[in-house]
Design a protein that fits this description.
Elements: H1 5-19, E1 29-34, E2 39-44, E3 51-54, E4 61-67, E5 72-77, E6 82-87, E7 94-97, E8 104-110, E9 115-120, E10 125-130, E11 137-141, E12 149-152, E13 157-163, E14 167-172, E15 179-183, E16 189-193, E17 198-202, E18 206-210, E19 217-218, E20 228-231, E21 236-240, E22 245-249, E23 256-259, E24 266-272, H2 285-306
Helix pairs in contact: 1-2
Length: 313
């Protein structure tokens, strides 16, 4: 028997629909490191469904970042002086660069230029390396515990916390043009809201200011924040407090406890959000099952009606 164009188009449409029947929660996740248990974990944005992604082979993981388009997570392992990456589900772990000078802490990704920016908390070095691990450069040397790092790629700037321990500075992406923006904060994480001209940082309390360092506000979030990440579309900030993960509005109101068990020393935190990058759809187990059942059902119906199948263009 012969399947005409109408049935062929229906089959193709069913296939396309099921390809996009993805596990959307996988693209909307919290990822964090726990440097005491040497694990990388993730959970849904509401703190549910916490999974241990990587529980072996790590030694004091700190900074973490997500390349949602490529379906990868990157992290700095301070204990082994490595930058590593894996698939979003923790599989296919690989070394990106080994034997990094000093103690790598924060990382930030330039997915356009295929660069990883790295802070060295031991010596205050700021470095960058290509995604393939080649071309390691030392961009500048800042005295102090440099931990927080954020990139404003459109403006060609990077923001760094911990310069001389208590300063937040800004520099060009090549390390030139260093400016001191804020003093008096031993900050461990920084996040930029470039469209609105704001930066947020964690230094125990969470604070925010204009990108030039003016108009500093300390938000009523408590005094224990270590890592920080923000969902600007939803107007929510997420942070780690060593043994828990919390969320609040951008003004610090409506604080929620999201993860309160199984954490010892949660460090860096990042969000995997479709709004941040255009994600490549990733088929979940449920999506694959739905796709298979749907295609089998359509195929069975056609076979029952027609007896045999041949597909015409």
């Amino acid at each position: 028997m012969h399947i005409g164009r109408s049935t062929t188009r229906t089959l193709i449409l069913c296939w396309l629909i099921t390809i996009f029947a993805v596990h959307t929660a996988q693209a909307q996740m919290i990822y964090w490191t726990d440097s005491a248990t040497n694990k990388i974990l993730r959970g849904h944005l509401d703190g549910s469904n916490v999974e241990e992604l990587i529980a072996n082979g790590l030694s004091f993981p700190e900074g973490i970042a997500v390349d949602l388009t490529a379906g990868k997570i990157y992290w700095a392992d301070s204990g082994t002086s490595k930058i590593q990456r894996a698939d979003l589900d923790g599989s296919n772990v690989e070394d990106v660069v080994t034997n990094i000078p000093g103690v790598p802490a924060a990382i930030a990704l330039d997915t356009v230029g295929n660069k990883i920016y790295i802070t060295d908390v031991a010596t205050g070095r700021i470095m960058r390396v290509n995604f393939d691990g080649s071309g390691l450069e030392i961009l500048l040397l800042l005295n102090g515990h440099v931990r927080g790092l954020a990139l404003d790629l459109a403006a060609g700037k990077m923001y760094i916390t911990g310069a001389e321990n208590t300063k937040i500075v800004r520099a060009n992406l090549d390390g030139s043009g260093v400016e001191v923006l804020v003093t008096g904060f031993l900050a461990t994480a920084i996040v930029l809201d470039s469209p609105n001209g704001k930066m947020f940082w964690a230094a125990g309390p969470i604070s925010r200011a204009n990108l030039d360092g003016t108009n500093i506000e300390t938000l009523p979030t408590g005094a224990s924040a270590a890592g920080l990440s923000i969902d600007f579309d939803a107007g929510k900030m997420y942070w780690t407090e060593f043994n828990r993960i919390r969320r609040a509005n951008l003004d610090g109101s409506n604080i929620e406890d999201l993860v309160t068990s199984g954490l010892v020393t949660s460090r860096a935190i990042t969000l995997a959000l479709p709004s941040a990058q255009a994600p490549v759809p990733v088929m979940s187990e449920w999506g694959a099952l739905v796709a298979t059942l749907l295609l089998l059902t359509v195929g069975t119906i056609v076979l029952n009606r027609r007896g045999s199948v041949s597909i015409a263009a």
